[in-house]
Specification:
It is found in: Membrane. The protein is α/β, with parallel strands linked by helices. The protein has 15 helices and 15 strands. The chain has a six-stranded parallel sheet, with helices on both faces. It has a five-stranded antiparallel sheet with strand order 6-3-2-11-12, with helices on one face. Helix 5 packs antiparallel against helix 12. The chain is globular, with a radius of gyration of 27 Å.
Length: 505
């Protein structure tokens, strides 16, 4: 954007000095179109301006919708320079176009909402569990985009996936904290008694995530969070539960240092472990220590905060039209399907534009550049053919895999670990099952009131136990910078290794 902006400003200054400001309104039939370039530049500047972290986090909807200006940015860029010159960016943009259209196809269908764990109203936090196909695999710290048409048909919001695809093969869970209008409205809808009167229509895109970090290379893994920043670590803890219990591998000692405003916010710790009996039994080998800091309360209550279990679980009876979350191109050989989509669509594109160019744009006997065929119209036809080929190939592969997945689950009734059977759309439980992971969490937690964690002291203390110590931070930028500075200070003979993973949008 720096080069594009400098390019545009220099030309405008040049035209002003030469008395040729009319050039700014020039849309040439067969040469460079200045107007198209100016429109593209303005769209790019609007897109770029909303990417600053302060705007992106405070006004996420503005950031999200403004980024659809990429369509204007690219289309008018092609009009500006012509399709032939724009081909230098074709490989990257072509792959993006395939990916974007496949994600669009995924988001058109509603998914099955199985259950919701609802934390006390003070924190307005809940965990939604969706049905998923066993073939859907994803890494810890992945993100899922949600759309609830009952709130808004246009708004999509990203949330951290807390489940583990190997430990919970039929479920995918996300944690949502009521911090804005959309999330607060969702909390009210799910927690209200009126929720029993209708099914929840939810669409998703994803999950998306980085290649999984090799957590096993550390002897100790320290995870530092503030408030709802604990969410990304839930999936890491569950991933290590699976590694320890099913793969029988040694896992690092886990240290979770988390800050909360009030005791009520400790309810977030209920979500660290899954509620299924099999998964709860698997936590026996987990070496977990939790240092919980309650910053706005000076002393502990008369009773343990873990004994006031106000967490409710609602089980939803899914609609027959709702489907499990599944891989867009099927659970097996998805890379082969993707390669087939990319290669077949691009081959069709080359063949069609070859025919279009030879018989319509530059017919026989007419040299390139002779005809008065508008450059913008040529670019438009090429882009139209490009999009049509991508849509046809992607839709074909998607519908073929969708038909196979429907055949595999036809007649099956989804069950969520321990979901009760019976009539009605919603079930509420104060399940004995919930107490299994709760006891494990209470035993592992050290509570500190009225103070903030002394990260320097804690990190040095844990790294002196020997071996490599990995440090991960999910929270404000200041918290991440503080932890990174401590790790690089050399206080622990370089045994502290800061894991640079971004958890924020």
């Amino acid at each position: 954007m720096t080069f594009f902006t400098a390019h545009g400003i220099c030309y405008i200054v040049y035209w002003a000095l030469m008395g040729q400001m009319s050039q700014t309104l020039k849309w040439s039939r067969s040469e460079i179109s200045n107007v198209a370039g100016e429109i593209s530049l303005l769209a790019g500047l609007g897109l770029w301006a909303t990417t600053f972290p302060r705007i992106r986090r405070k006004m996420f909807e503005l950031f999200f919708y403004t980024h659809y200006l990429y369509i204007v940015f690219v289309v008018f860029f092609v009009f500006h320079v012509g399709f032939t010159y724009a081909c230098y960016m074709l490989p990257g943009f072509y792959l993006f176009l395939v990916d974007r259209y496949l994600r669009f196809l995924q988001s058109r269908r509603h998914v099955r909402l199985l259950s919701a764990r609802i934390l006390p109203a003070a924190g307005q936090t809940l965990e939604l569990s969706f049905s998923k196909s066993p073939g859907l695999k994803y890494s810890p710290t992945s993100v899922l985009f949600l759309n609830v048409p009952g709130i808004s048909k246009l708004q999509w919001h990203p949330f951290t996936v807390t489940s583990n695809s190997s430990l919970e093969t039929d479920e995918l869970s996300v944690v949502i904290k009521g911090e804005g209008k959309w999330t607060k409205k969702l909390y009210e809808m799910v927690s209200s008694s009126a929720a029993a009167d209708h099914h929840f229509d939810v669409s998703v895109e994803g999950p998306y995530g980085p290649a999984s970090t090799d957590f096993l290379r550390h002897e100790t893994l320290v995870m530092i969070s503030g408030g709802s920043g604990i969410a990304p670590f839930i999936s890491i803890i569950r991933d290590l539960i699976f590694t320890s219990s099913h793969l029988q591998l040694k896992t690092p000692r886990l240290i979770l240092i988390s800050s909360f405003k009030t005791t009520a916010d400790l309810a977030m710790l209920h979500l660290l472990l899954p509620i299924t009996a099999a998964s709860s039994a698997a936590t026996a080998n987990l070496r977990l220590t939790i240092e919980a800091y309650i910053t706005r309360e000076k002393q502990a209550a008369a009773t343990s905060p873990f004994h006031n279990n106000n967490v409710r679980t609602k089980w939803f009876k899914p609609s027959p039209t709702h489907a499990p979350i599944s891989p867009i191109l099927g659970p097996t050989a998805s890379w082969l399907w993707l390669a087939a989509v990319v290669s077949s669509s691009f081959l069709a594109f080359l063949v069609i534009i070859g025919i279009l160019t030879g018989y319509y744009i530059y017919p026989e006997g007419k040299k390139h550049g002779e005809a008065g065929f508008p450059m913008a119209l040529t670019a438009f036809l090429y882009m139209l053919v490009l999009c049509a080929c991508v849509a046809a190939a992607s839709s074909g592969a998607f519908l073929w895999n969708k038909r196979k997945s429907i055949r595999n689950v036809e007649g099956a009734t989804p069950t969520a670990g321990g979901s009760p059977a019976g009539g009605g759309a919603v079930y509420e439980m104060t399940e004995e099952l919930e107490s299994l992971p709760l006891r494990t969490i209470e035993e592992a937690t050290n509570l500190h009131y009225g103070v903030r964690p002394n990260l320097r002291k804690l990190l040095v203390e844990y790294c002196t136990e020997g071996g490599s110590t990995g440090v991960m931070v999910s929270g404000p930028a200041g918290l991440r910078h503080e932890a990174a500075a401590i790790c690089s200070s050399g206080l622990a003979d370089d045994s502290l290794q800061f894991e640079s993973i971004s958890f924020s949008w």
